[in-house]
Amino acid sequence: NLKHYILILMMGLLAAVSCTDISENLDISVHDEAVVLHFSTPDVSVKGTVADNACESNMSHLDIVIFEYKDSRYEPFHHERVSVSSTPRGTVSLHRTKNDFAENTQYKFFVIANSTVDENAYYKDGQLLSYEEFLHLDQTDKLIHLSGVDHHIMNPHYPQIFLMDGVAYKGNKEPSIPGNVVINDPDNNDDVVLNVVLRRAAAKILIS
User: Fold this and answer.
1) What tens-digit pLDDT sequence spans the chain (208 residues)?
2) Residue (of 67, 82, 199, 198) closest to 134 by Cα position
């Protein structure tokens, strides 16, 4: 049978639809009121039906976009782009510390891996995009269906990384729908450690 790989691009920033425990083997060091983000990818993406491979779990950088929740609406708070290794698991410390966040205030952390849009795309007129503008932000990637092909032999423009996204949460067990988190709780002196499971925005579906 002739088999084809078809890629379906799902560019919306979707919440995870399964629970993942990433508590094992965490090596996280927190100091000086740091806010630490541990990121990982599931062994097999729930958005696709073809088993994962090394190329599709590689990471180049993360965009961390934070919104403050107040008066029943989300207000832009902070964005930073952080370079990471190509391994599917790792830890980064944010440039903002615990004390930069308002006390007892909720925030939502969107994490996007391997975005090909310019870092300036997250801003408009020098200001971070509003929540609504951010949710409508998208990108277009050519030849995404040829990702993983040996680009040195075939074509240097074949993508070698995939767009991924997730919403950060506290605790070791991923909620079915990650929501807001409180960073600066004056009654809690525990380390501020967030987790995020990053899932591919492009799914391969094998059709026989």
Assistant:
1) 333 333 333 334 433 333 344 433 344 444 568 899 999 988 654 444 454 455 667 788 999 999 999 999 999 999 999 999 756 789 999 999 999 999 999 999 999 999 989 999 999 999 999 999 999 998 877 666 555 555 555 555 666 678 889 999 999 899 999 999 999 999 988 779 999 999 987 655 555 5
2) 67
pTM of the model: 0.76
The whole-angstrom separation of Cα 105 and Cα 161 is 35
Which 8-state DSSP code applies to residue 101?
Answer: S
**Torsion-angle region of 165 (φ positive above 0: left; ψ -120 to 50: alpha; else: beta):** beta
Pairing of strands 199-200, 164-167: antiparallel
What the block records as the tokens of 134 is 């951010």
Q: Are 4 and 207 in contact (CB under 8 A)?
A: yes
Look up residue 43 and give its two tokens.
């062994």
133: left (phi over 0), alpha (psi -120 to 50) or beta: alpha
The sign of the dihedral angle between the CA atoms of 121, 82, 37, 200 is positive
Of residues 35, 65, 13, 23, the one with CA closest to residue 194? 35
Cβ atoms 195, 173 nearer than 8 A: no
